[in-house]
Amino acid sequence: MRWLSEGRLFAAYRDEGYGNDVYLLERKGTEEIPERQELLLACWDSCPGELEDAVIRFNRESEIYHVTVQLYEDEAWLDAKLVSSSPPDMLLLLPLNVEKYGRKQVLENLDAYLDDSSNMKREDFLEKPLERYIIDGRLLGIPSEFMCTVLVGDASETGSQAGWTMEDVMALTEKFPGRKLSKRNFRWNLENFCGDYIMDTFIDEESGACHFDSEEFRKLIQWLGEYSVSQTQQDTFGEEERPLFYEKFVCNIFDYMRYVSRSGEDVAFAGYPSPDGSPRYGMGAFNAVGIVSKSQHKDGAWQFIESFLSQGEADYGALANMPVRKDLMEDVLAYAVTPEYWMHEGEIEQGQDGSPMTKPKWSMRYEDLSGEMVEASYDYATEEETEGLLELISQAEFASVDDLQAHVMSIIAQEAESFLNGSKSLEEVTKVMQSRVSVMVQENR
């Protein structure tokens, strides 16, 4: 492909069954540019706006490489493409199964590229969000931003503790019969409330013995079905006015203040259940790009990743995610704790009590736990609040989901549906679970 004399390039491509997707890229100047080496970035379904902007910027600036985005919606297509003679050079890693592609050595270890880089090093990034993309000690991608997920509830019902065991959660439901755990379905509750507990309680790590045909496990499945809003995998959410827990996203310091530090005594801030009851929060990390090991243009792919990660700017808004780069995170937190004042003719305006009048940094209307619309407006954060946010991040689970655990949860959810819809007895489905999971555990030993 070649930049046209009017300074615009139309890069059109067709993929089987998905129609035409056209990107319009512009470059200053009207001179003819020699043909450049093509880099293919494969993205599932869509390309995030931040990444698309980075592609346009990189294509304007690079005289050697040109990035084209290819969209796909079929993992089988991607698998075939990766072993072909013309694989993509880069993959957007969300929502790929990073475990699968990492263990197959499909992706390059970016630590080697960071070691040789003069622009950035591993220590330039927050370590926690990187955990999502570390497989067998190899760093496969570097996200540009992240967020955490938490559970909140009514403190008068749940108490104010930050951590839970599975036994704590089950005891809580006994106090409020008929109330659901969350607004999510059986599968989501299984994975998020019970995943670690099931792996620790019903699978013997040393011997590989499984206990999914035990009475204790049957009671767990029956309990989870009773306290889940929806019991089919297709309906992720269900109608429930007052679940015991609400899932909330902490994307920045503003969310931390409205859900945690300034939520009032009526709201409890809790993590997901953990084996020892210590706080455990969820995560999401975004815009990580990996380099395909079979790429013929690995240096160019790294140049694009470097360009994308190095040119980001701090976003201080109430809707922004947190940056993974340490310097940008420091900027965000420094902005958060610095008051801004209303000014008049160059002077700080004073309130009736003579104190300087601070200007709100963040304001937002949102629905509280009772379903009413409220408005949160904050002038600035305290040092204690920024430290609290960093503590929350340190307790978040950023590591990728263990492949065995993911398969075990999938088997349980599949087989449990026959019990939940009444077509099979609980004893029947747990016997099938026992058989299927036992085979899988032995194969993975």
How would you sum up this structure in a few lines?
This protein is α+β, with helices and mostly antiparallel strands and 445 residues long. The protein has helices at residues 49-61, 75-82, 98-103, 110-116, 127-130, 155-158, 166-175, 186-202, 215-226, 253-261, 298-310, 326-337, 383-394, 403-420, 426-443; strands spanning 8-15, 19-26, 37-44, 65-72, 90-92, 134-135, 138-139, 145-154, 246-250, 267-270, 282-286, 289-291, 322-323, 343-344, 347-348, 362-367, 373-378.
Structure overview:
With 445 residues, the protein is of the alpha+beta class. 37% of the residues lie in helices and 19% in strands. It has a domain at 8-144 and 286-310: D-Maltodextrin-Binding Protein, domain 2 (3-Layer(aba) Sandwich). The chain contains 15 helices and 17 strands. Strands 8, 9, 10, 11 and 13 form a 5-stranded antiparallel beta sheet that branches. A 4-stranded mixed beta sheet has the order 4-3-5-12. Strands 1-2 form a two-stranded antiparallel ribbon. Helix 10 packs across helix 13 (383-394). The relative contact order is 0.15. The model is unreliable at 1-33 (pLDDT under 50).
